[in-house]
Fold:
Amino acid sequence: MDNQIRHALVPGMTRSGKGQLMRSIAESYKKQGVPTLYFTSKEVEALDVKKHVDFVETNAESFFQTSEKIVRQTPCILMIDEAADFQQELPNALREMLNKWGVYGCRIFVVVQRAKMVPPNIRNSCESCIAFKQFPDDAKFLAESYGTEFLQISLPVVKPGYFLYRESAYAPVVAGRSFYFDANGNFIRVRV
Structure:
């Protein structure tokens, strides 16, 4: 996990493919023996992802407590779906997780619908951005955060089923790559 991205912001409109990506990533890490923990505020979503992850929870406080115990024992992956709901339940927990748990080898995916709603302290802690289909004002907001090249790449390319991966918020040049899932659910990479 050392050469993987540390924390990632995953914004995108409803039904743009965020959940499918998270399940694919979760399965990949689970096959490698890396514990994968998933938070969602939606009961239906929890039932759907249960078979793909090691632990799923719909209560933010319970998720935080369980995750903290596991993170201190072994490197793991945390996926915070509906991060706005998580923030509402535990206002300071996500910031603490992003800022402090990386020393334990924890990787966190912060999944949101509206990039514009992400507080600066959360956004700045996410070194990468996997952006799905965005409203124009959210795409502009991402460009302000991750560079204007990100906007130039994302606006013409992003559409349902596609997203862009920004290697690092600190890289001088944006490495834009699009991905999609084919009809069989295979993860396909295409150079932009």
User: Anything to note?
Assistant: Residues 7-191 form a domain with the Rossmann fold fold (CATH 3.40.50.300). The chain has one domain: 7-191. The two ends are 26 Å apart (CA to CA). Confidence is low (pLDDT under 50) at residues 152-192.
